[in-house]
Specification:
Elements (H helix, E strand, L loop, with lengths): L1 H63 L21 H8 L27 E3 L12 E10 L6 H13 L10 E5 L7 E6 L1 H9 L11 E3 L2 E5 H6 L8 H16 L48
Parallel strand pairs: 2-3, 2-4, 4-6
Antiparallel strand pairs: 1-2, 5-6
Length: 301
């Protein structure tokens, strides 16, 4: 009998031990399952938060990058073209540099001068004789805006040389010009800062967008930036580009409209908008060649 009771007691002890092992396994499994659920929930929340933040920032960036095109200019070098400035076009096409070092051979950009001046003009006291043999005499003054850093008398002599050049408008046999420092005159050549050019040309409804020149009323208005830096499309010296400015705007005054390149390799007409590309022509500042041949091209409507 003692032997049977001992056996029964051993059986019960074994069953209790087995139940304890089973309970322990279940608790471990439940704990692992709960940990997995918490981990998955946390991962889902992080993923949703990151995507939403990036998308919102991208949408706001897209909204703030919108720009509106400016109106085109009329009776200026920019006629028929929108406001895209040579500086802005260069920025749009620029490629990232492959080296942090600047090239030692890179030429220095010419100083474009101040963006704004005083708005007041000094008239050059210089005067000159009649140039040309045409019956139509056009007298003009040269005026320079205060704060531009330009000498009115020096500018007047440069402009006088342009209009007196045998390749200029006097070669048409109809027009003559005379620089005067005072008294009756037909038009003024004004060299002004970009902001003042925009204001003066804007009064006539023209948009020079801080970059180009215009001819309005009795004024040929020259943008100081162009006078000092020329144009990236014109490979000649800046003095030649100044001649182009004067010949182009005075050409408007005496009745010429815009022209375009006659053929690749030919000289670009002085009445061409050369600041926006030469279309295969060679840069040229003069309406006539030294033989008195007009260097024109097809008219631009």
């Amino acid at each position: 009998m003692r032997h049977t009771k001992s056996a029964a007691g051993g059986s019960r002890s074994a069953r209790r031990a087995e139940r304890r092992k089973t309970t322990s396994r279940r608790q471990r499994l439940l704990g692992l399952a709960a940990l997995a659920v918490v981990t998955l929930l946390a991962a889902g929340l992080v993923a949703r938060g990151g995507h939403g933040g990036d998308g919102g920032a991208q949408a706001r960036t897209a909204d703030t990058s919108r720009t509106s095109p400016s109106p085109e200019a009329v009776r200026t070098e920019a006629r028929g073209r929108p406001s895209a400035s040579p500086g802005a076009s260069a920025s749009a096409k620029a490629k990232p540099s492959t080296s942090p070092k600047a090239s030692p051979e890179a030429p220095e950009s010419p100083d474009p001068g101040p963006k704004s001046g005083t708005g007041l003009f000094t008239t050059a006291s210089a005067s000159g004789g009649l140039v040309g043999h045409g019956a139509t005499v056009r007298r003009y003054t040269v005026q320079v805006e205060g704060g531009s850093g330009i000498s009115a008398n020096e500018a007047a002599r440069q402009i006088e040389r342009v209009l007196a050049d045998p390749r200029g408008w006097t070669a048409d046999g109809r027009d003559s010009f005379q620089l005067v420092g005072s008294g009756p005159h037909d038009f003024d050549v004004k060299i002004a800062t970009p902001d003042t050019v925009d204001h003066l040309c804007g009064q006539a409804g023209l948009d020079t967008h801080g970059e180009v020149n215009c001819d309005v009323g009795s004024q040929v208005i020259v943008n100081l930036k162009r006078w000092l830096t020329g144009s990236p499309e014109f490979s000649g010296p800046v003095e030649e580009y100044r001649a182009l400015i004067i010949n182009h705007e005075v050409g408007h005054r005496i009745g010429h409209g815009h022209e375009t390149c006659p053929a690749p390799g030919r000289p670009a007409p002085a009445m061409m908008q050369q600041i926006y590309g030469l279309k295969g022509c060679a840069p040229n500042a003069w309406p006539y060649d030294r033989n008195g041949t007009y260097l024109g091209g097809p008219s631009v409507p």
